[in-house]
Amino acid sequence: MGHGHGHGVTSASGRYLRPLALSFGVLALFAALEVVVGLITGSLALLSDAAHMVTDVIGVGMALATVLLVNRRKANTRHTFGLYRAEVLAALGNAVLLVGVAGYVLVEAVQRFANPPEVAGLPVLLTAAAGLAANLVSFFALRAGAKESLNVRGAYLEVLSDTVGSLGVIVGAVLMLAFGWHWVDPVVAIGVGLFILPRTVKLGLQALRILVQSTPGHLDPVVVTEALTSLDGVREAHDVHLWTLTSGMEVASAHLTAAPDADPTSVLNRAQTLLAERFGLEHVTVQVELAGSGARCRNPRW
Q1: Which residues contact 179 (CB under 8 A, 6 or more apart)?
Q2: Cβ(158)–Cβ(55) under 8 Å?
Q3: Cation efflux protein cytoplasmic domain spans which residues (predicted)?
Q4: How far apart (Å, rounded) are the C-alpha atoms in residues 80 and 252?
Q5: Is residue 191 part of a domain?
Q6: Distance (Å, rounded) from C-alpha 127 to C-alpha 135?
């Protein structure tokens, strides 16, 4: 005899629509400005900062498009969980994009050490200052959502890296103006690349863990199984699965073998309560099998 239950899965991603749209507009405007000035002045630091800002625009754009997609395409017969995984794919895309840009800037900066070009410090300083203002607007708009959504965190990480990049470009421009140290330009570019790479790799790994359905880091399947087994009327818990659908959405399924005289509905209710209150698992599917009733799990061939 089996019983299953699952609460509806809902997403809070809609609340991130306005800050993402604001960030997208502001960053697109200043990215164009930095590209133009960087090409005119020949500043690699400014071009690297502009490249990061372009990836910001792309990254925030992907995050924005994903939120629109997720909120318009609810769960249906073809996508029974909706399209929440699109948020994870967007985060992974952001990580890949940032790694590529950072790698290119690092290689180009090392090559420039041999012959640092003349860079006009004042236009670089003024443009970087404007870029910093744009990044700060986006930084504060996305900061709250970055704590809850992997998708928004990817866009936030893009903006954070570019904020640091703008600060570095400003410092480099001041040093070039004051002392004529043109070698500072590639040094700043390298510093920005090294700052963002570890954070980007971490974001990519988080997205991959979700996509391969790894157990959420704060949950232990052994502990969950033991807790289910300890419930009144339960003889055994098995086939326990824990995974993440998208940021903040953990899902679980389990099979319970109950005593012959146990009430399956009561066992089911106790299991749901335990998983929700102790482990924060609200979307769960629990199958209850009465011992000796002939009901048993089907073993898949894979």
Answers
A1: none
A2: yes
A3: 224-289
A4: 15
A5: yes
A6: 12
CA distances from 2 to 88, 269, 286, 287, 291 (A): 33, 13, 8, 5, 12
Tell me, yes or no, whether 150 and 250 share the same domain.
Answer: no
Question: What are the Cα distances from residue 151, in Å, to 189, 243, 256?
Answer: 26, 17, 35
Q: What is the pLDDT of residue 193?
A: 76
Q: What is d(CA 82, CA 223) in angstroms, rounded to the nearest whole number?
A: 30
| 182: helix, strand or coil | coil
Q: Return the structure tokens found at 17.
A: 């629509």
In the sheet that holds 234-246, the strands lie side by side as 234-246, 249-258, 283-290
- Beta-bridged to residue 287, according to DSSP, are 255
Residues 26 and 138: beta-carbon distance below 8 Å: yes
In order of 108, 218, 254, the CA distances from 39 in angstroms are 15, 47, 59
Position 17 pLDDT exceeds 70 = yes
Q: CB within 8 A of 186, min separation 6: which ones?
A: 44, 45, 108, 109, 110, 112, 113, 116
What residue numbers bound the domain in which 282 lies?
Answer: 221-290
What distance in Å separates the CA atoms of residue 109 and residue 45, rounded to the nearest whole number? 9
pLDDT digits 0-9 by tens, 124-168: 677 778 778 887 888 787 777 777 666 677 777 777 777 777 777
First to last CA, the chain: 24
From 164, 188, 211, give the residue that closes a domain.
211
DSSP conformational letter for 255: E
